[in-house]
Amino acid sequence: MQRRPERLLTFGIALALGALGIALLAGSVDIPAAEVARLLLQDDGSIADRIIDQLRLPRALTAFGIGGMLAVAGVLMQVLLRNPLGDPYVLGVSGGAAVAVLAAMLVGVGATWLPPLAFGGALASMLVVFLLAQRGEDPDNRRLLLTGIVMAAGWSALIGLVLSLAPPLQLPGMLFWLMGDLGGAPRPGLALGVLACGLAGALWLAPQLNLAGFGMTQAAALGVDPRRLRGSLFVLSSLLTAGAVAIAGAIGFVGLVTPHLVRLLGATDHRWLLPLSALLGGSLLVLADTLARTLIAPAQLPVGVLTALLGVPVFLWLLNREGHS
Known about the structure:
The protein is an all-alpha fold. It has helices spanning 5-25, 33-41, 47-81, 93-107, 114-133, 142-165, 171-178, 189-212, 216-221, 226-248, 254-265, 270-294, 303-324. 44% of the residues are buried.
């Protein structure tokens, strides 16, 4: 069912604001809504002020940025692979980041260096997949997909090797990072900045993405350069994924499920699908992270565990719905 895109965008913005509001209110310390609103506009140096300004708000904004990055990357990957099961992690980008970070943890590298090392590992994996997949013609991107799957399997083996060599005291931190964790995420400017740049680049490609939906052959007949578009999609989606993994580790299902949910709402034009996916993906991860840090407070769960637990039934429901449509 088609809905006016302006209404969908309004809904997406309202959902994002609501999710951020819930994140600011939820926590082991009860702060009334009126007090939260006041502290957002006025700093008084109180404990409640520090909880809002230094803990809850930065973490919520970081979660929103990462969720939006993964959702936009998921949209681009599904167009690139022409496969509804396209996922930001399917080409092994997160595996390269994970190996770099876990190896650094194993040798005792400081936490400050982990995000740039994760980004470097993700870029290295991206480059290897891209160079291997570019040999010969690949009109259906089968070589790209197979190369990514094989690389992901290789990274998975290396991850298992590093974990088996790790001292017992280091294992919890490594596993927590692998499952996705926003507890040590930096200030939100980085995540929001990467999301803004990635979304701008994706929107610039939106007209070509709409044509690519009819098939690359027809898109080429209408003036689209398929090889250039594939390269742009691969690089942009990989950079968005690398940025998300570098900041918070591997958080699954957000990039896979979100584009399907947005299409279910009636948005198929990529000029609307992309920003709506960013809003919905960011909102979903904010809510999941809020649940992760409050469900068994004061202890915290890895947010990637909750996104998987929630994402599996949602995606199975989507598959069942499409099978009966």
